[in-house]
Amino acid sequence: MNTRNLFRVFNRPVILNCICKRDKGYKIVQRPDPKTLKMPNLADAPSIMTIIKEKQRLNGPLTVAEYMHIVITNPTEGYYEKKDVIGETGDFITSPEISQLFGEILAVWFYAETQKMSPGKPLQIVELGPGKATLLIDILRVLNRYGYKAPDLTLHLVEISTAMQVAQANRLCVSHRETDLESPHNREGETVSGIKVYWYNDLKKVPNNFSWYIAHEFFDVLPIHKFEKTEEGWREVLIDLDENDKLRYRISANETQATRVLVRPPLDAGDRKALEISPRSLGIARQLANRVDQFGGIALIADYGHTGEKEDTFRAFHKHKIVDPLENPGMADLTADVDFSQLRLAASMTPGDENYALVVGPVAQMEFLQRMQANARLQVLVDNAKTENDKEKIEAAYDMLVNPTKMGERFKFMAFYPSGMAQILEKYPPLGFSTPK
């Protein structure tokens, strides 16, 4: 057979139906319409303890981060889904709930620092974990004095708890509604003055625009991994059940994946024997730094914390008292002090291909408020008080905020600025973080 005939043979169509016919290897199914899906009946939802036991049965001991995630964020039995937890009748109280002065000072700070870079309009205000929305209400009152109207700003709230979203919406809005699953935000509303308000379950979904980012008592509830240094090296603290089905701590026998990934220089430097690391916190700090640097704005973090010197801060609050975090999971607020030195590492970078932020702070809450002349605002509030009892309450609230033995030293402030503001901040140092000249 010559070459031409050989190619003719290879080019003939080959019919394989008789020998290669086969049935389809898949089955077509109809997916449910997401709009028809409903949450399970709350009465049928398993308890937090049942969820923890089942997860341990399937996967073994939990990390502290897994435990916190279950307790705080479970959609039916999670801590923030079940009750009013903030305020005098709840488990803890925050600075905005103590005094209107706190939110007013923060509004003045944001406005003054923004004037160093732009007019600040249009403006997005983004708050992470807005609580009862008290801080935003106080900020909006000040911005109204500065001439901000509905077309000038929008509010964007990052909140994973459906119950908290509804509570915030009821305080902020004259009307609000849930959105469909295709929308990047899962709730929207409008204030009495016409300001649009949007709710998200993830910071990544918030539009990338010039923004004020507020994270007040937000990082302290993000899940942490706990580690202890043993004779064999760093090992992770885990949670399992004892012979009486009670939760307890135990040390991992070998290195866990979290140990290999998270425990590295400079976090493990020195003679420290324990570490608490929140990868979620580090990721969000990096997001805030990138957003501020790429799209403009300022981020302000206010939380109780330290600069790397503390080792074991994981605890729970119930009725304003510290309780065992492993007792009655879901009934108490789980929290850990924020390590501001770790947030600084996550947000600050040497200039390069990736974006980074200029990081200032942390400074103690007492110093920040006093440098912002909060005592002058205090005097105005006292002078306008109608009764002596009202005056005493106002002064007592201020003392709670600035007294070193109360919230004054434990709470700290840190801010992220765009990297291009280095020379501006050198000439005009950040208010609240430096002593006014």
Automatic annotation (TrEMBL):
State whether keyword Methyltransferase applies. yes
Sorted alphabetically, the Gene Ontology BP terms of this entry are:
methylation; mitochondrial respiratory chain complex I assembly
The protein's annotated catalytic reaction(s) are:
L-arginyl-[protein] + 2 S-adenosyl-L-methionine = N(omega),N(omega)'-dimethyl-L-arginyl-[protein] + 2 S-adenosyl-L-homocysteine + 2 H(+)
Q: Does the keyword Mitochondrion apply?
A: yes
* Keyword annotations from UniProtKB, A to Z: Methyltransferase, Mitochondrion, Transferase
Molecular function as annotated in GO: protein-arginine omega-N symmetric methyltransferase activity
Q: Which InterPro entries match?
A: NDUFAF7, NDUFAF7_sf, SAM-dependent_MTases_sf
Q: Which family, according to UniProt? A: Belongs to the NDUFAF7 family.
User: What is this protein's record name?
Assistant: Protein arginine methyltransferase NDUFAF7
**Organism from which the protein derives:** Bicyclus anynana (Squinting bush brown butterfly)
Name of the gene this protein is made from? LOC112054862
